[in-house]
Amino acid sequence: MPLEIDANLNRELVPLSWLIGSWEGVGVVGYPGTPEKQFGQRVDFTVPGDVPYLAYSAHAWTLDEDGTPADTLSIETGIWQLVRDRQDFDAGPGLMVPTGESPYTTAEAVEGLRNDNGDFDLDVSIVHPNGIMELYAGRVNGPRIDLSTDVVARTRSAKEYTASTRMYGLVNGELMWAWDMAALGTELTSHASARLKKVS
């Protein structure tokens, strides 16, 4: 089934448009030294106005043996966007008002942002409630996204966490993702994965 793209969608979001919406499903989480457990998750990718980025939020919770939602594992928030130099026509830093018109208003202009491999480079920021913020560098190629941490920032009270990779893919209309991380003295290893169905 072909993807329908809103004609009013900011052109820079077209390569990410297959993510937009709400997704729910279940997955498996584990890590050396901790038990493997099923979890439930809801992920939302929204467009907060005519902006060249997606707002991201994810809520994950443990599941009892009968599948009943139990305790919250994490709530993540973030921003996903294509890589390009920010110019006067972009808002910020802070609340600075943009001046001028964006040149990225056509599919042809956005196509010019592809890298030498034919992918679009991505910047993704994700904030966790336990004192960790990740800045990912990545790429999107069709319905697949690969991310790896460029920067991990931790508060003084956060647990040790040094690196992460994530992969997202659209398979038969479902959002599949996998997450590897390096934390608590363990090198990069499998941590969690899930299969989510679109709910809106």
From TrEMBL:
Keywords: Heme, Iron, Isomerase, Metal-binding. Pathway: Nitrogen metabolism. Binds 1 heme b group per subunit, that coordinates a highly solvent-exposed Fe(III) atom. Its EC number is 5.99.-.-. Residues 12-198 form the THAP4-like heme-binding domain. InterPro entries: Calycin, Nb(III)_bact/plant, Nitrobindin, THAP4-like_heme-bd. It catalyses: peroxynitrite = nitrate. Its cofactor is heme b. It comes from the Bacteria. A motif (GXWXGXG) lies at residues 21-27. It is an enzyme of class 5 (isomerase). Forms a 10-stranded antiparallel beta-barrel structure able to accommodate a hydrophobic ligand in its interior. In fact, this fold hosts the heme group, which is located in a wide surface cleft. HAMAP family: nitrobindin. Belongs to the nitrobindin family. This is Peroxynitrite isomerase. It comes from Brevibacterium luteolum. The lineage of its organism: Bacteria, Bacillati, Actinomycetota, Actinomycetes, Micrococcales.
